[in-house]
Amino acid sequence: METFFRLLARKTGRLFLTVFVISTVVFFILRVIPGDPAYVVAGVDAPSEAVEAIRARLGTGRPVLVQYGEWLSGILRFDFGSSLLSEEKVSTLILSRFPLTLLLALAGMGIAYMLALPLGILSAVKRWSFWDYAGMIFSQIGMAVPSFWLAILLLFVFSVWLRIFPLFGGDTPVHLVLPVLAMGINRAAVLVRMVRTSMSVELGREYIITAVSKGLPDKVIRYRHALRNALLPLITFSGIQFGYMLGGSIIIEQVFSLPGLGRLILSAIYQRDFPVIQGGVIFVTVVFCFVNFLVDVLYSYINPRIRVS
Amino acid sequence: MSQDVLLDIKDLAVEFRAHSSRIQALRGIDLTLLPGQFHALVGESGAGKTVTACTVLRLLPESARIVRGSVVFQDHNLLSMSGDVLRNLRGREISMIFQQPSKYLNPSMKASHQIMESLRYHLGYSDRAAYGEARRLFEKVGLPARREDMARYPHEFSGGMRQRLMIAMAIACTPSLLIADEPTTALDVGTRLQIINLLQDIRRASGMAILYVTHNIGIVKYAADYISIIYAGKIIESAPRELLFSEPMHPYTRLLLASAPGRDKRGARLRGVPGSVPRPDDIPAGCAFHPRCPIAQKECQETPPPFVRLRTPHRCACFYPGRMGDGPEEGPEVFTGAEFARPKTSFPKTSAAQTTKTAQTTKTTETGSAAFPGSQGQPAPVDAEPPRGQGDVPREGAGVRPSILLRVENISKTFAGSGILRRSPVEALNGVSFSIEEGDIFGLVGESGAGKTTLARIILFLEHPSAGEIFFKDTRLSSLPAKKMREMRSRIQIIFQDPHSALDPRLTIRQSMEEGLKNLGVPGDKRRAQVKSLLEQVEIPWSQEDWYPHEFSGGQKQRIVLARALSMKPEFLVLDEPVSSLDVSIQAGIINLLLDLKKEYNLTYLFISHDLDLIGYLSTTIGVLKAGRLVETGPAGQVLSNPRSPCTRELLENPLSFLSLSETKKI
Question: Check: CATH 3.40.50.300 for B394-666?
Fold first, then answer.
């Protein structure tokens, strides 16, 4: 167990390092982007004294390194400053918008795995059968179609034509069905292939021959032996999937007008609202890193080859 | 069918479809196994051993097709049986164990569960009862059976223990037949013996029969009741053990037995089998062995010889059974001079010289007197001690000590633990010292993990020792400046076990060979000439210079690697298990070549192997490495006949070595 804690400590160290590097990159990239936030606040035609005054208030005129130091210490206190426009605290803004995005991402992943697992396993077990081809065609189309296009298509069919689901907004669970589907189907297309490959690889391994030679029923061989091992790499992949989900939600929220974190960041970018962009990106980064950290730890716990008791 | 036959394979033919071609893996196998019998199926790689084993349980891949034949087990035809009946038989009546338990065990399932499974499915045990039985099986196969041991995963066991685990799994339902597909090939000699003894104990206690697939003649000689020899998808000879070893009938069997290097053959040239095993997609017509057979006749090229009973129960597929002698090819060729100068001790003289009692020199009726090059004018076999005394006189008598080429002083190597989580340092070598005289063959023997390869890497300065020094001709290697070191590198060359990974797959063999010469600054036309003469020397036809490595067989690749090493004009060659990955019949040719080259180029060898038979056959000096320490060094004769260390004695007395001392005494 001691070694497990060591692993935990090492992974935590790496987590902090990653966050530090990303926060630095984010900070300096934003400084390099053309566009002065003071002008955004004051308006392009504002007199130079007014702009100066705003600059002083925002603190954007001070030396970059000073700002950088403040930024880093702010992160540790979960304080990203205030929005330049609404003057609300960035942390409050993020926390109010994040639950919706998280819900979208998790539900999307749920849909993705629910679709991909059975289809992928079926494809691997009955290779070159109807189901295999069906799965592969689904995957091919799903990967070729961008998620925003699928989203628009879903809206068109289910909201405009059939009028089953509402068109915009995010107040009730019903509002989330189409966005979740749009995200889930897109990811499932990639996952199906992974499940199929992973499962086929395991079914081709030598220990399967042993299981057959023991006279075990096919079901036991497939699910108790092959599937267990086939799922291991998929666990690692699920962390990265989650990242895709967070990234994808920016577009999907836009299409469905959902007030999530993605939309918050996107509009902040348009408005050069530096603190919101910085805070939003860092927050997403931390969440992504943390999820992958959890997946890593979970994986090393589940996989007996890595786990050392 | 007679009631006391357990497994009866008749005329079994299996082919594989690959792309558009068909590969004949089995071309008519006949094999009969009695209850409780230890039946060894012996053959070289690609002969069809494993395919035969897998066909019995119908474990063949989808690309395989059973062309004809029958496999009858206890009156059930296994080939026509329905899936359900077959499943019920697998694991319950017939079990199987495999060569690499690390791959054939489910990595993510606890050891105990893998055993309990069959008990539950076949015998309807409850979880509790199955667990109890699994514990009993753990104890039976000699595994620790505490709760935490049983909850371990396969990777937490050592290689030998994993094989024990496989055996426990296989015997869980007390089957009447166990098929063992090279179960000990990947194990050390010591562990190998333990596993075979375990199998024998189980067999004697339960009356289970074993079909043991192997290429190792030592094992067969030690354990088998009955032996079938397979060649190119056909059984060519089968007989009870004693009969097969005393009167081998098929030329292939004879050559195979003669080509195994043994300590008793020191000084004599190994026989070897000319040519190489035919590829399964290109099997010669007639008798598949005829291109390699010294006594092949016209009819051998045209008609496949039937597998007939010579006398009960000896069967053989040859038109001229027992007609070939087993002496060496061109006469009692022996090494003289420096080669085997020092060991004065005599070695157990044995059955290599079992002489021509079966190789009758009778004139055959149909084919005439000149027909049997093997039987006519067959030179006397080497039974006398080879005249190795000649070399002794000038050396020891005149007191001229040969100069020391390589001196290893107090070498230690500690690795800072590997793996993500384990950081405890590993001690690979501990204070190893020895020296190799010019012209010596220093045989370094030891089990896997003893530090042999680490030592080789240190001598080649691919690895830095934690302590100690290496001197090459009195030059301390660690003090050499980088430029001198590069020069030195060409003087010391290494040959690895796997010739395949030693050759760049995208370079033709000529390109591979010219590369090093280019670095030495040899001009283009000279390079070509050198490559040509070297390839000729290792018996690779010059017309194949533009071939790629994959177009050659394993033995040929090892020859090419050898030629490449020689092109650097080395003085010293480190040979790290150079023949271990090759078939027995090919090994002899490479070993003979090595000895020839040594003489011609005046080389010094460090020959590393786990195989004491081989080391004992060709070394002048032997060093025994055990867990990083050199437990014994000395002149080969002394080490072999009068070992001081118990480790050496253990190796020498292992009954699995083809001709161990203990075995020799019995014969």
Answer: yes
Beta carbons of B90 and A213 less than 8 Å apart:
yes
Domain ranges of chain A: 101-258
Are B57 and B96 spatial neighbours (Cβ–Cβ below 8 Å)?
yes
Note the pTM of the prediction, 2 decimals: 0.79
Closest-CA residue to B593 (of B572, B606, B581, B579): B579
Q: Whole-angstrom Cα distance, residue A206 to residue B48?
A: 18
Q: Tell me the shortest Cα–Cα distance from A226 to chain B, in angstroms.
A: 9
> Nearest CA to B300 among B291, B311, B308, B309?
B291
Q: What is the pLDDT of residues B374-396, one digit of tens each?
A: 333 334 333 333 434 333 333 44
Q: CA-to-CA distance for B255 and B523, rounded, in angstroms? A: 44
CB contact under 8 A, A215 and B89: yes
**CA angle (B585 as vertex; B579, B586 as ends), nearest 5:** 45
Q: CA-to-CA distance for B663 and B222, rounded, in angstroms?
A: 9
Answer yes or no: is the ipTM higher than 0.90.
no
Chain length of chain A:
309
- Determine the CATH number of domain A101-258: 1.10.3720.10
CATH code: domain B1-93+175-246 is 3.40.50.300
What confidence tier does B361 reach under pLDDT thresholds 50, 70, 90? very low
Contacts of A5 in chain B (CB under 8 A): none
Burial of A249 (0-12, 13-18, 19+ CB in 10 A): buried
Sign of the CA dihedral with A53 first, then A57, A58, and A59 last: positive
Report the C-alpha gap between B93 and B86 in whole angstroms: 10
Per domain, the residue ranges of chain B are: 1-93+175-246, 107-174, 249-329+350-384, 394-666
Does this chain's domain B1-93+175-246 share its CATH topology with B394-666? yes
Q: Would the CB atoms of A213 and B92 count as touching at under 8 Å?
A: no
H or E stretch at B412: strand B404-415
Structure-block tokens of residue B627: 């867990």
Dihedral in degrees, nearest 10, Cα atoms B101, B104, B108, B114: -90
